[in-house]
Each structure stands twice: as C-alpha cells, then as structure tokens.
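Comment thread on ticket #2218

A.B. wrote:
> Attaching the input chain for the structure job we discussed in standup.
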Amino acid sequence: MQPFTVKILGCGSALPTQKHYASSQVVELRGKTFMIDCGEGTQVQLRRAHVHFNKIAAVFISHLHGDHCFGLLGMISTLGMLGRTAPLHVYAPAEYEQLFTMQLDMFCNRMDYNVVFHGVDTTVSDTIYDDRSLTVTTVPLNHRTNCCGFVFREKPSLPHIRRDMTDFYGIPQCYLNNIKNGADWTLPDGTVVPNSRLTAPADKPRAYAYCSDTKYIPTLHEHLKGVDMLYHEATYCEEDIKRAALYYHSTARQAAQVAKDAGAGKLILGHFSARYNNEEVLLKEASDVFPNTFLASEMKSFDV
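C.D. wrote:
> Ran it. Output below, let me know if you need it in another format.
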C-alpha cells in the first residue's frame, strides 16, 4: 500500500500566536503532493517540513479569510524564484479570481511558469480535481464567508500479483500486467488457471476529508461517509458554544459528533483558538464522543 499522508504546517486560528501557525497542510498520495490552505508563514513551514516547493501540484483554498490564504501569493512568487516550470493549479472560491489575477499581474508577472486558477462554487458538492489515482470533491460548509471543505478519495487500484503463484506456473514478467487486469493463464496442456488464484485483492481505497471553518452542520456527515480520516476545525470548547455559533465555528464536541455520524476512522482536531493555552481540554471533550481523536500540531504527520 502506497503512503497516503497528511502533514500539518499550521493549525491555529486567525489570531497569531507563538505556538501555532495559520492553517495549511500538505497531502501526499501516490507520488503527488497537494496543499490545502496557505496561511501566512506557510513557506517557512514548508522548509521546516522538508517538503520540496516544486513538488506541489495544486493548492486548494477553502475560503477567503486571511489565515487561510495570505501565504499563497508569497509562495507563488518564491516558486518563480526557484525556477519552477510546471503549472501550478489553484482551486479557490470563484469570487477570488479577479483580485488574484490583479495580484499576479502586480507581483508575479515575470515568472517562467503558469498559475492556473480554478474558480470553485462553494455552495455545492462537486468533483473539482480528477486524475488516474484520486479525486477531490468539495463539501459546502457554513461560515461567515463562502467556504467549503475537501474530500480526497483514492481511486481503486488493481489487484496484487501473487508472485508465489506466478513463479510456480512460470508466467513471464511481460504478462503480469494482463494478470493484474483480470486475465487468466493457460498452461501448455490447456488447463486454465483462474485469475483469482494468481492475484490477491486490491487495497481498499482510502479517503481523507478536510473540513475548514464552519458552524456545526448536523447533516455534514452525509458528505463524509466512511472516510478513513477527518480533519475538522475545533476552534472552541463546549463552554464557549455561544461564541462558536456567533462566529460560525465549531466546538471540539461538535467536530467529534460529525466524525461519529460519518463513521470516520479517526478525527484530527485543528484551528485552535488562541484563548486555549492547553488544547488537551479540546481533546478530552472530543474523545468522550469519538475516542479515536488526535490533536493537530505543526510538523506532525498522520497516515490516512
């Protein structure tokens, strides 16, 4: 099974602290690298995480609050200085396109690579990225501005070759791709060896969901059924639930309820308010509802 990992670059909320950076994380799957949100300071965190800047194929911006996108233009400029030639795809709320184009024209007009903007309708669930190995689908959220989450779903892979059986039957290397694609093998005497004897079942496709800033949505889990890992904002604890509702954020307990209702494999809490010096209170609150819960922290990696 190929690695499917999420590395946290920043998991704080809007107010800067010495403990947390603004929201950003890197998703790595089947040799591809993607970024979700790009808050201020993301470039520094990429250096610390030893992530090669030029490996990032696409950036997904959940919404247009500064703690989720103020780092984007600086990173685009740096990529130009590093000699990038491959296009960079940016998926962001559609209303950002005009301002984004103006910023590129002002600050990044002499780069040797193209930045391709994809306007996202945050009000609907839609597949916005699709390649041979995965899809990325939007999930509408409820925040003070247009906002969506993202679900990264791995596509089914081919079965595994049972080398003990293919060696036993003397099947040549050049035919193994046919076996992986469902072919049987015929012996010199005409006996057919069924494909099921030559292969083992493929790995179960995995899914990762990122739910950025949002008020608690009781039906959100319907978009997230069976994901292996869910990152959900947990800006406040339950004693501040009125403040969470006022600013269109969630509590840790509410995040855990979403994970429980979705049947998620594990829950990662993030986007912590600066008011909490010790986020263990958030972890305990969520764990009471959904035991397999973890706190995000800068430079920490999670396997999906």
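A.B. wrote:
> Thanks. Noting for the ticket: The chain has ten helices and 18 strands.
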